[in-house]
Specification:
Layout (H helix, E strand, L loop, with lengths): L1 H11 L7 H22 L14 E11 L2 E10 L13 H16 L5 H9 L7 H19 L9 E13 L2 E13 L5 E9 L4 H13 L7 E4 L3 H10 L3 E4 L1 H9 L3 H16 L4 H15 L4 H14 L10 H4 L3 H17 L1 E2 L2 H21 L7 H5 L5 H6 L4
Parallel strand pairs: 3-6, 3-8, 6-7
Antiparallel strand pairs: 1-2, 3-4, 4-5
Helix pairs in contact: 1-2, 3-4, 3-5, 3-14, 5-14, 6-7, 8-11, 9-10, 10-11, 13-14
């Protein structure tokens, strides 16, 4: 406590300048976090205690946007579990974005009965255009900075997928593709790499998106996981020059369409034996045996398997520890599920800017949540085997 008083006294003795308030906020926030962590660990910083339940594990730097400006925080990390200070309100950004989208629709005269009911349920009425403009501007700047940030380091694995929302364009209601990229870096951690929207998933659209990621610094990609959309496949080959993994879940949906209702269970079990093999050679051998067994009775299905073999089993060439996360787009499907849940509340977006605002806020939140997770998505040692970065390779070698 004496040290805290000395630090506070040092702040009070500073001249009254623009930084003073931010430093006071920083001091108070840091002290609140220290008290929080002290309660979670059962002991003060560096204190020996029989009641200790956890240990500190360094800090994570985080910028906190306040009315006094940007405050630099050092958020404590724990050896077991994770810590995130309540005053940062991790869900506040998307809630503001959702509010802004609804307000904007209301002001622009897109207020159907459902929008009116939702506005009332959120306790809002009489929203002015200036209020909407101010709130949207606050959110848009943060989201743009997040989506345009430099992409640093190597990214051996990238997942790509699209979801669709409804929006008004030129007086019509149309489906708009929202495409998202998620990656795992050389440190074994996940991040949202980017998003954009367009009228369809045409090759030119995907190519432009992937090139924008490359311009921001995306490199070192070894495997890209996606569905079998032709435009996306062509764009991956053209821009990233990486191995392509066809989503196993999407493939099974397509292949079972050739099996008929009675044979789907048997076919699914047969093909599943190939996925259960320990290595690439065994998986390919089993895959061809299954195709040959099916060929006499279901020729189209066998030919479909012949054509898809390399793409569906591409993940088998990568570390065994990663395969459960590489064979499908499930890691990004969960993100899409959250996007659909939040966008369904809106129904029809008034314009493209509103889509960017809400979806961008959801992705920013998701990225923050991944950042504070203590455990890596993939271990540093296993990721090192597919990294081009010599520093990562060296750091993964046991001392």
């Amino acid at each position: 406590m004496t040290t805290d008083m000395m630090n506070l006294q040092a702040l009070l003795e500073k001249n009254s300048d623009a930084d003073f308030l931010r430093e006071m906020i920083s001091f108070a926030a840091q002290r609140l976090m220290d008290l929080d962590v002290e309660g979670l660990t059962g002991a003060g910083h560096g204190e020996r205690s029989a009641d200790r339940q956890n240990h500190r594990n360094g800090y994570r730097d985080r910028d906190w946007e306040t009315r006094a400006g940007t405050v630099e925080l050092r958020i404590p990390k724990l050896r077991k579990g994770s810590y995130f200070p309540g005053f940062l309100e991790p869900r506040r950004m998307a809630e503001k974005a959702l509010t802004a989208v609804i307000q904007e629709a209301y002001v622009q005269g897109v207020s159907t009965r459902s929008v009116d009911d939702l506005v009332k349920a959120m306790g809002m009425s009489g929203i002015s255009k200036s209020q909407v403009s101010r709130l949207c501007g606050e959110i848009d700047g943060k989201i743009k900075a997040f989506l345009d940030r430099p992409i640093e380091g190597d990214w051996p694995y990238v997942w790509l997928d699209a979801t669709y929302v409804k929006a008004r364009r030129d007086g019509r209601i149309v489906s708009v593709a929202v495409i998202i990229a998620v990656g795992v870096n050389g440190d074994g951690r996940r991040e949202v790499l980017g998003m954009t929207i367009g009228a369809s998933e045409a090759e030119t659209f995907w190519t432009g998106f992937l090139r924008s990621l490359a311009r921001r610094g995306l490199r070192g990609v070894k495997l890209v996981i996606s569905d079998a959309h032709e435009g996306l496949k062509a764009a991956i080959s053209k821009v990233l020059n990486a191995t392509w993994q066809r989503c196993r879940v999407h493939f099974m949906r397509n292949v079972l369409a050739h099996a008929g209702k009675q044979g789907r269970g048997v076919v699914s079990a047969f093909i599943g034996t190939a996925f259960a093999q320990p290595d690439t050679e065994a998986a390919r051998k089993q895959w061809r045996q299954v195709a040959d067994q099916l060929r006499p009775k279901v020729k189209k299905l066998a030919e479909f398997m012949d054509e898809a073999e390399n793409d569906v089993l591409a993940y088998m060439d990568f570390p065994a520890a990663h395969r459960a996360k590489l064979h499908s787009t499930n890691p990004i499907e969960r993100v899409n599920g959250e996007i659909k849940r939040r966008t369904d509340v809106v129904g029809i977006f008034p314009n493209d800017e509103a889509i960017y605002r809400l979806v961008g806020a959801i992705l920013l939140e998701q990225n923050d949540e991944w950042a504070v997770q203590r455990g890596r998505y993939m271990t540093l040692e296993s990721v090192a085997t597919v990294s081009d970065n010599p520093i990562v390779l060296l750091s993964a070698v046991p001392a």
